[in-house]
Amino acid sequence: MAHTKAQKTVKGNRDSRAKRLGVKIYGGQIAIPGNIIIRQRGTRVNAGPGTMLGRDFTIMALRKGKVTFYTRLGASYVKVE
Fold first, then answer.
1. Could you point out which of 3, 21, 55, 66 has its C-alpha 20 to 30 Å from the C-alpha of 41?
2. Which parts of the chain are coiled coil (predicted)?
3. What is the structure's pLDDT at 11?
4. What secondary structure, in 3-state letters, does the chain show?
C-alpha cells in the first residue's frame, strides 16, 4: 500500500538548513580580535573580559590571547587572556 496519495512529493516535506551553531574556538586556542568564539541562541555562555556579545548572542574576541572557559555562580563564561 502506498503511503502517498499521488506520485508527487508532499507539499510541506522540506527541512530547513542547519544554522552552524556551537563553539568555533575552543579553550586553550589563540584568538585574534574579531574572531568568533561561540555562535549560540540565547546566552548559554556569557561574555567575559576580552570578549563581546553580539546582537545575535555571538561571542567575539576583542583582543589577541588564549581562550578560557570558566564558571562563576553557576553561570558559564568565556574570556580572552
1. 66
2. none
3. 74
4. CCCCCCCCCCCCCCCCCCCCCEECCCCCCEECCCCEEEECCCCCEEECCCEEECCCCCEEECCCEEEEEEEECCEEEEEEC
Residue 58's domain comprises: 22-80
pLDDT of residue 14: 82
d(CA 11, CA 5): 12
Give the pTM.
0.80
Cell numbers for 19: 544554522
Q: What is the pLDDT of residues 8-44, one digit of tens each?
A: 666 777 888 999 999 999 999 999 999 999 999 999 9
Task: Classify residue 2: in a domain, yes or no.
Answer: no
**Confidence at residue 5, expressed as pLDDT on a 0 to 100 scale:** 63
| Assigned domain for 12 exists | no
